[in-house]
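Sequence design from tokenized structure. All designs in this work follow the same two-part layout: the structure record, then the generated sequence. An example of the structure record is given first.
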């Protein structure tokens, strides 16, 4: 859950990258960390097994200022996708404010994507959270591989749902920043609806997104980021 420290003018928001095993969750954080470089002011913490698969979680803290000097702390986590790490995923989801669901674009991974989505819903419920109340963005990753869903299919999926959908090839850094911006915007909107965060912090959604765009050095696009 978002933590608003009014006396110290700090806001801490938790974002989790969720999805099936090997869908590219850690790769997203690695690519984002490389893009940010020294501007992030912190290291990416990764706990891997011997075969480079996430054992517990990855953590990427991002700090910046928004509005009249309020410090924003974004804590980005990933979860291990393997089935037997369900308990770990549930723990990492505690207090989550927004989720970037990283799906594998390959048609052959459809079942794993669906099972992971149901796992997300179940783990949120176990934490006293409803999927419908949590900000969500869906990323279709691995667009460079064979046997992937077509762009038209992904567009149809986006039209059927209400969640923002981003296409990505995280190994090349494509779609990574866009996914990050999308989940940040969706999360801020959700926090405003649930907690009136703008009134409590004095930070408008546009100001919040402008500060993030400046941090990641990407042009601010009002037609995408404004409500």
């Amino acid at each position: 859950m978002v933590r608003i420290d009014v006396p110290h003018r700090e806001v801490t928001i938790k974002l989790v990258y969720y999805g099936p095993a090997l869908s590219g969750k850690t790769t997203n954080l690695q690519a984002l960390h490389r893009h940010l470089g020294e501007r992030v002011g912190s290291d990416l913490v990764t706990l891997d097994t011997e075969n480079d698969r996430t054992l517990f979680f990855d953590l990427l803290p991002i700090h910046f200022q928004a509005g009249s000097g309020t410090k924003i702390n974004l804590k980005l986590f990933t979860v291990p996708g393997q089935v037997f790490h369900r308990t770990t995923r549930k723990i990492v989801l505690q207090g989550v404010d927004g989720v970037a669901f990283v799906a594998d674009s390959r048609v052959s991974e459809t079942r794993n994507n669906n099972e992971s989505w149901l796992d997300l819903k179940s783990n949120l419920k176990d934490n006293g959270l409803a999927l419908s109340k949590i900000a969500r963005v869906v990323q279709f990753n691995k667009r460079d591989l064979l046997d992937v869903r077509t762009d038209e299919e992904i567009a149809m999926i986006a039209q059927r749902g209400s969640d923002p959908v981003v296409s990505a090839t995280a190994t090349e850094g494509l779609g990574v920043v866009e996914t990050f911006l999308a989940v940040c915007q969706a999360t801020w909107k959700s926090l405003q609806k649930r907690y009136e965060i703008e009134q409590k912090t004095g930070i408008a959604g546009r100001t919040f997104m402008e500060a993030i765009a400046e941090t990641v050095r990407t042009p601010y696009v009002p037609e995408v980021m404004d409500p």
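The mean pLDDT is 88. We note this feature because it recurs in several other targets discussed in the main text.
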